[in-house]
Fold this sequence. Notes:
The protein is mostly helical and 152 residues long.
Amino acid sequence: xxxAALRRCSVAAAAAARASPRGLLHPVPAPGPAAAVQSVRCYxxxxxxxxxxxxxxxxxxxNKPDIDAWELRKGMNTLVGYDLVPEPKIIDAALRxxxxxxxxxxxxxxxxxxxxxxxxxxxxxxxxxxELRPTLNELGISTPEELGLDKV
Length: 152
């Protein structure tokens, strides 16, 4: 947005220079100190996504029947970049995508990432595992704790 504003300003300045009776051979006087400061606001004018829409978008992403391993990793990388712990239904969809791809390592890594994202809030990870337990049992996925990875 800022780049577009700067481009508009430079295009307008170039047009003014061409339209000037002095032409390009004569320099345009420098603007005064008041004109040197320009305020540009970069507010988002788009609609804001609700939590439910956010969750639905990610569940839909991971439920794509033709998702490949790269898309799975890309989606998880993007999701982990947000300042949040993903909802269990998003993780459920990601784990099911791992199962469709027969990618057990990614499934365990997703659970490790969730534990890491929970950070110092020790009650979040057990809650997520509790909510995911039926899916984990159905898909035959072990938690990092069950595999002994938390002791390494």
